[in-house]
Design brief:
Structural class: mainly beta
Number of helices: 4
Radius of gyration: 22 Å
Strand order of the largest sheet: 8-7-5-16
Number of strands: 27
Distance between the termini: 43 Å
Strand content: 25-35%
């Protein structure tokens, strides 16, 4: 089992200084969850005139039906954050580069590996080495060191920061560093708000609404990206992969690639489909662990854009159960909802092949089309075992 207690030595961190950036002091929010009782206070009025209540302990809504004070807030049952789930990382200790991503479960998983959620970290001590000294997922990462060799620096990324950063960037949007004008708390836009730019925000720190200076999507990782920059470009992988599931009885895992939050290595970041393939069930490390531009499994070809989109869709609670395979009734081709339609369930769809407009029927009429759902179902029919069904456990956040 890979150790979760990897800690880097506290050396000086040298960061690019042109252009100069304001680096706020960010830290991991203490997630107390069920360890602490709710501290619920009234914070204002709702749109319907009722009182809105907020839990200052868990930083969550605590308004019950009809504007009443709830007994417990929405986040009271969240698992508490343990010290060993947070990595302290000094980039200067890893000249080969560090990379941080938002980690969510694979879209297809026939292994028996545990749920992967949070901030995934790669770190290399030797430049261009294939060996990763750190290759693990944490619930939080604290970047320590000094800025420009003078000012002490502390930047942090929580699991929710990383996950929603992934979602925002996969759908083609950017994030801004936003602070509450009432309490100064760094603001994170979750779920629906992570894919819709807006100007008025609801602070998780104090429960009050505040306006920003411009329309945008708030995420504390924007400060981290501004401090580190992204020193290389993202380019399609040159690798191609064809495999049979029967050759990997330990199972396979499939993710779409997503832009790194931090990337300090000299080599370019690769775009495509990331695959883990285990030769034996008891193996700790996969035999195949790489990103590919083309992937064919048991004769079934995977589309990188559809895989990446499905991965991001799985991290949006407000569309849970709404992403499915849709077939155009006119041309009989699979329909792929893209752009805003990829995260906006609708009754009416315009076919991506013949432009025919059609409507969906059934109990859930507002749907989103992604052919990858059928593709993965076809793979499951040929799998060595039934694929795992993972749940991120994220709570919906909508208007």
């Amino acid at each position: 089992m890979r150790s979760r207690s990897v800690r880097s030595s506290q050396l000086q961190l040298l960061l690019p200084t042109n252009p100069p950036v304001r680096v706020p002091r960010l830290d991991i929010e203490p997630i107390t969850g069920r360890l602490q009782k709710c501290e619920i206070v009234a914070v204002g009025k709702r749109r319907d005139g009722g009182t809105r209540f907020w839990c200052l302990e868990h930083r969550a809504d605590a308004t019950a039906k009809y504007g009443r004070r709830a007994q417990r807030c929405r986040y009271a049952d969240q698992p508490p954050l343990r010290p060993e789930e947070v990595l302290e990382l000094d980039a200067a200790a890893y000249p080969g580069g560090i990379a941080l991503w938002g980690a969510v479960p694979p879209v297809y998983d026939t292994t028996r590996q545990p749920l992967d959620r949070g901030v995934h970290v790669h770190a290399r001590r030797v430049p261009r080495s294939k060996k990763k000294d750190i290759d693990w997922t944490y619930r939080g990462v604290r970047l320590i060191g000094a800025l420009d060799g003078r000012s002490a620096m502390s930047l942090a990324i929580s699991e929710l920061d990383a996950i929603y950063s992934m979602v925002t960037h996969v759908f083609g949007y950017d994030t801004r560093y936003i602070e509450c004008t009432h309490c100064g708390h760094p603001h994170l836009d979750k779920d629906w708000f992570s894919v819709h730019a807006h100007r008025r925000h609801l602070c998780a720190g104090c429960g009050k609404t505040f306006p920003d200076t411009q329309v945008g999507i708030g995420n504390p990782v924007a400060a981290v990206r501004a401090a580190f920059g992204h020193r290389t470009r993202v380019q399609p992988s040159r690798r191609k992969l064809s495999l049979k599931q029967a050759d990997f009885p330990g199972g396979i895992q499939i993710w779409g690639s997503n832009p790194a939050i931090v990337w300090t290595g000299s080599q370019h970041e690769e775009e495509g489909i990331h695959i883990h393939a285990f030769r034996r069930e008891r193996d700790e490390h996969p035999e195949r662990d790489d990103t590919y531009s083309e992937v064919v499994i048991d004769g079934v070809r995977l589309d990188p854009v559809m895989v990446r989109t499905l991965m991001a869709q799985s991290a949006l609670p407000h569309i849970a159960g709404r992403v499915t395979a849709l077939i155009c009734p006119k041309c009989r081709e699979p329909h792929f909802s893209h752009g805003e339609a990829a995260f906006t369930p609708a009754v009416e769809h315009s076919c991506t092949h013949c432009s025919h407009t059609f409507v969906t029927a059934g109990r859930l009429r507002k749907l989103i089309g992604n052919p990858c759902v059928d593709t993965l179902s076809e793979l499951a029919m040929r799998a060595v075992r039934t694929p795992q069904v993972h749940s991120l456990g994220l709570l919906p956040e909508t208007l």
